[in-house]
Specification:
The structure holds two protein chains of two kinds. Chain A has 15 helices and 14 strands. Chain A is α+β, with helices and mostly antiparallel strands. In chain B, helix 3 packs across helix 6 and helix 11 crosses helix 17. The longest helix of chain B has 20 residues. The two termini of chain B are 37 Å apart. Classes of the chains: A alpha+beta, B alpha+beta.
Chain lengths: 439, 457
Amino acid sequence: MKTLYLALIAFVIAALPARAEIEIQEITTPGGIKAWLVEEPAIPFVALELRFKGGASLDAPGKRGATNLMMGLLEEGTGDMDARAFARATDELAASFDYGAYDDSVSISAKFLTDTTDQAMALLRGAIVEPSFTQEAIDRVRKQVLSGIASDKTDPDTIVGQTFDAMAFGDHPYGSSRDGTEETVATLTRDDIVAAHQAALARDRVYVSAVGDINADELATLLDNLLGDLPATGAPMPGTATYQLSGGVTVVPFDTPQSVVLFGHPGFERHDEDFLAAYVLNEIFGGGGLESRLMRELREKRGLTYGVYSYLVPKDHAELYLGRVASANDRVAQAIEVLREQWAHMAETGITQTELDEAKTYLTGAYPLRFDGNGPIANILVGMQMDGLPTDYVVNRNDLVNALTLDDMNRVAKRLFRPEDLHFVVVGQPEGLQAEATQ
Amino acid sequence: MPFHPMRKLQSALCAGGFLLATLAPVAHALDVLRDEVTTGMLDNGMQVVVIEDHRAPVAVHMVWYKAGSADEKPGVSGVAHFLEHLLFQGTTNMEPGELSRVVAANGGTDNAFTSYDQTAYFQRVAADRLELMMQMEADRMVNLQLGEEEIRIEREVIIEERNQRTENDPGALMREQMRAAQYLNHRYGVPIIGWRHEMEGLGLEAALDYYQTYYAPNNAVLVVAGDVDPDEVMALAREHYGPLPPNPDLKPRNRPQEPPHTSPRRMVFEDPRVSQPYVIRSYLAPERDPGAQETAAALSLLAEVLGGGQTSVLNEKLQFEQKVSIYAGASYRGVSLDDTTFSLIVVPAPGVSLEEAEEAMDAAVAEFMETGVNADDLNTIKRKLEASRIYARDNVDSLANRYGRALTSGLTIEDIQAWPEILAAVSEEDIMEAARMVFDRNASVTSWLKRAPEVTQ
């Protein structure tokens, strides 16, 4: 067991740095499960995060939506408890369990009071290891999923994402919604759900973090009991998703007053040596804040939108650089024109030293502020493990940001920003916009 | 600077402080969990609340104004929210956007929101940056300086915001109409973001009128939460907010109230963009009042009993037993200056009409009125609320929010701190009495959200 003492130092202009101290312990249980732990006894509860790599992209051919439906069924009963008995037992312990399905992982987030640890974990073990998957529950939850799929069909925000994904990735699982289609979900059987469970929840792909009122020995015992009876191995990971889009505009006609736009092109892998530089570039260009170039150009200067932002998407089997904006049908063409200009400008001239300095100050100052509660810390730690980062990244990360030079950034800007490849998917009734998709 | 209409179920956020033998572990845990809250008042009438949490070197600095969209004059709906946007557009001492830039340059984030009863501005920064935040926030409380060009562009931004939040979402359009039908006289019937035709006419004059009426220290609450020392916060507040002049003309918040409601209202909202229809009914309901929160506590628990989760009465009957719904719920928002609403919602299963869903909802409620509250269910709910106090301690931002919202909705510190015990003391009979009072069809709006037939393009 390795113990690392971390002092997070916030970069501040004045002399007094803000400090947070978290001590990450890396443990391996007798059963061979690895986990990161931060002991924090101040509040008598534990936040436990479990992630299994693979996720909805493990859906078998023709079974799209199986992993998602399976995750929705974990809380629907185990042993002699049906869905309602399970919910009642969880409520009585005042515990909370959340289940999620994503393209590259499935997640289980648990919060439980220290005094109820054994009972809460016995309940969760039942849900994860021995879910009943009764036909009654499958049919009931299936209806909820189908309702969501139906709603997505008339939701411009979802239509735009699904259209981009389908055009970008075709038959790869990334090319379709992880919820599945009305056709696939309607035909999923109990056997399909059981198979999805065996495929997704296995010990060879689990990542664990715990933060709160628990020590390393207690956590080790807890994890072996909780996960020890899961299969040792799950389904093989899907192959690389080949990006199939080229530059252009695709319009999906939809009768709504404001057009919703998703735009992008390929991005960087998480393990790309320039990933951090790209992350900082994006922060300057379109990273959420009011001060980003895109917000300044589209919102502050022109009032074209309420919000515009861009983001790197380093998935396990493909990597994208995407952005979103929404603008009234009669103004969206102008918004797209400004986006194109900004993209080209970035590729040609990059950023300024002042922009880099400001971004560094912001990012290094904001980083320690993320570690502000058991739940948030547990989330960060499990994400770091999935990204293959070491525990000391928490201490070194700000140094890495500060080491970036303007030359690095502007070299990387030419790689990251590819104005010719930019593809816009527009859902709405845009005026004065020529669809020029080459699909 | 987006706005966030309050949408969380208040009853889910608060908890009780009762003791029962079966609940020993939670009660024990709570011994170590008091909200570490210190309060004070500046000479100019600005209230100060400090919530300590020393686990991380972070501070949240918030200034809440006791003025929201329901305090607007008729004809300028949306001006409270518009002004909130304009407060980022510079002062006599700061350039447009400078405040946010300075916050970011200090590694912080900032934002603001407008609701019916309050407007709040906040920054989240390293704790040693607190003074700078106070300096800038105090500045824009009194020194706002606006140019016509900023006004024009920002008006376009809020119209795009309305497009995004409301015009593009049939559910939001329906809820807007529903509130307008629910409130016959009160400004709660007007959307926070404003009616589009009035937003288009918003200008400098209306914004400054609102600003000069409501933005003053004697109409504001300062909430600072995180790794801070209460004495130091008070000293800094005295230095930066203390010199600001109070508004001597500030009036009590006596807004137009509801007349008796004597007729049920019904509406059908159709839109081709609806895929999942549902039925929703809201009832006018009393809110949490200072020193008199008992009825509101009973209504909070009623919402939990009826629609608070998988094991709630409506879900048991409609989703599990009769299988006529895919979801059912109840909600009640007790923190409100004036009359609030209690709502029921049923999302029908495929093949079940809205008429059948509404009948099933009414039958389930009628049956509940006969059988009453299950004592075990109530204990479980109370225990869950109790535990939520522990989980809430993990998030100092949400504690700060709870205090700020309550203090700008007519409640006092004493009311906020008494609430857990008031909830714990609610009996099965209290809940049924509250249910008999609130389920008055004459004070209700029932709405169906339906898919409209496609219009030929």
